[in-house]
Structures are given as structure tokens and as C-alpha cells.
Amino acid sequence: MVSPLVTTAALLLLSSSPLNKIPNYLTGKIALDERVIFFPTAANQINTTHWNVPIHGWIFEPENESKKRKAFVKILERFFHIKNKEEKQILKRRVMPFVVDNQSLKFVNIKIDGGNNNNNNNNNNNNNNRIHRMPRSAKDGHFFRELILHEDELPTNKDGIVTFHTIDGVGDNDNQSRIFTGHVHLIPPTGISIVSDIDDTVKITNYLNKKEFYKNTFIREFKVVPGMVELYQKLYNNNNSSQQNYNNEINNNCSFHYVSASPYQLFEELYKFLIEKEGFPYATFHLKKIRVKDKTLLELLADPQDYKIRQIEPLLRRFPNRKFIFVGDSGEKDIEVYIELYNKYPKQIHKIWIRNVNNATDDRFCGLLDDDNSNNIWQYFNDGTDIML
Is 13 helix (H, G, I), strand (E, B) or coil? Predict the structure, then answer.
């Protein structure tokens, strides 16, 4: 996702950064100059009453006023030959998350919101007041914990979304602006799950043209692939209504999961564009963890096939009774990823839809298992209007 110039400049910029102090190390209180981002995750039911609830977050100090970081942005402005104000603003928004000060060895406390659960007995109210301590963050600022919770502790909205928020220490946060909110999607054992790539699948990126790719990623407003919002909305509405409108074998609920080689540093920009601006259905995000200070930066150059399989296969294992539709593009390794997973989990994978961005031929699918159904599994498309439900 990042050019060699960006990588080199970032390493030089951060190599001389002083070690950050760790205020309130024992309390879990979030410092005034720190932020926490929670990434949307998928919870799975482990029995009739309990759920496995993943919490994934990132603690960092933005350092927006850092002179070194401002100088770094100036270098990139020259690299991209930026002259107009709009492109400068976009570049700063997109690049600054890559050069924040990640906060390691920090922890936060969270509490699940009351939601709209109709069960208002005293036990449920007590459960909703429980405080959950997260593990200390790693060097990249990320932390992850799986909570095993009773369904009474997980009040949801109408779309099955649980909301939680940070608190300071053992009490509620006094400063409302310092409360950070996250969401978890409770996904039933049966239904349909859409696993979707982002770049050149739902968002125009032009990955195969590196000059255009970098511009579309860092200095231009994102643009949606025509028809994809409508397609995903239709999938969601058809499978979350009172009737089964999309094949009788699939039960009435639909979840979405974005699995992309984009780094988590672009999460906020992607979420605001896809969910808030364009109106795609709520989705979980499975992106790459990188840190410009160490070898994880090389993950940006790693083979996406292995990475995507490692992200998607846990979903197939956690939801063995759901039907999956894989959506990607022909520009990189989506076809090969989906073929490998289909051959391993043929009964779970319902369809493979590939946006054809480089005149790919049918030969790309020759690796599918030779059975009576494989020819009906996959389809190329140019935009969302080509897919007939």
C-alpha cells in the first residue's frame, strides 16, 4: 500500500522519536493526548446462552502538531506533486495514522451499553454494569481479547449490533469527549455471510496501475464501484426480511466482512466512506497490522494469498453452518484465495463473484474441484448490476 519513498521517510522520521511516558499505567485511564479506535468484530454463539465476543482495539497518540510529522507530509506533497488545498487535506488525513505514536503496555476498561434488550430483570442490569479489562497493548498499540458472555449481557439494536464504550479505571469517564465507542456484530449460527475485498471490488483503486493506485489511495476522494452499494443493500434486505427471498436453503440473516490487504491505519477513512457516506451495510473489518518502525512493514509487500486465507478461514470455522459468498477482483490473488478455500470448504461456499479488472479468462478457475456444481459457483462481473439475485 505504501511506496518505498513513503517507507523510508517514515522510518527516518520515527527513528529519533523519544520514548513516550506511560501515564496512569495502573488505572487504564486514557491520557488526554491519546486516542482509542475499536474495530468492528464478529461474535459467534458457542451454545444456547453464551457468545464468544472478540474485542480489537488500537491505542495511539496522534501527534498532529508534531513538526517532524508536518515536514513528513510536506515531503509527500512534493512526491505527489500536490498543489490544491483539497488534495493536501486528503493526504494529511490518510498519512497521519501511519506516523502516530503507538502506545504499548497500555490497557483500557470497557463496559457494554444497555441497548434495546427487552430483558430488564435485575440480573441483566447487574450484568450490563460489568467492567471488562482489556489486555495491555502490544508495540503496535493493538490489543485483542475474546470475552465469553451470556446473551443477557449483550443487548443489541435491531441489526444485532452490540455497543460498548471505554471507562476510566473503575468508574465512568467524567469527560464525555474521552469516551471511545466500539461495536460487535452478533452473528447467528446460520444465514449468509458476504466476505468482500475492498480495493477494486467495492472501491475504485486501480491497483494494477501503481501511479493511479497511490493517488486513489492517498490524495483523491474514494469512489465506489457502480452498483455495489445497491447489490450489497439488496443482499442485506433480502436476507434480513420476514421472508426468504434469496434461495430457500439460506436462513434469514446476512452479515458482511471486509477482508483486505489495506492496513488498519486506513480503517477510519474506509469506514467513513463505505458505511457512513455510501451506505453499505454494517460490516466487520479484517485488515493488515503494520508498524512502520519494524519488520511488520514488510507485510504490505507480502503475498496477499496467504494473508487473506489466514483472515477468512477462521470465519468459516467459527460459522460452519452459514453459507458464504466471496466477492473480489481479478487484479491480485482473490481468485486463487477463494479457489483454495472452496476446495477445502465446498459445502459452505455458496458463490464466488469476481470483478474482472484485467480481462481475466475462465482458465483462472481451472483449480476448482471438478464436480457437477463447480461451474455454477463462480461468476465474473464488471459492476454490481451484472449480478442477478
Answer: helix
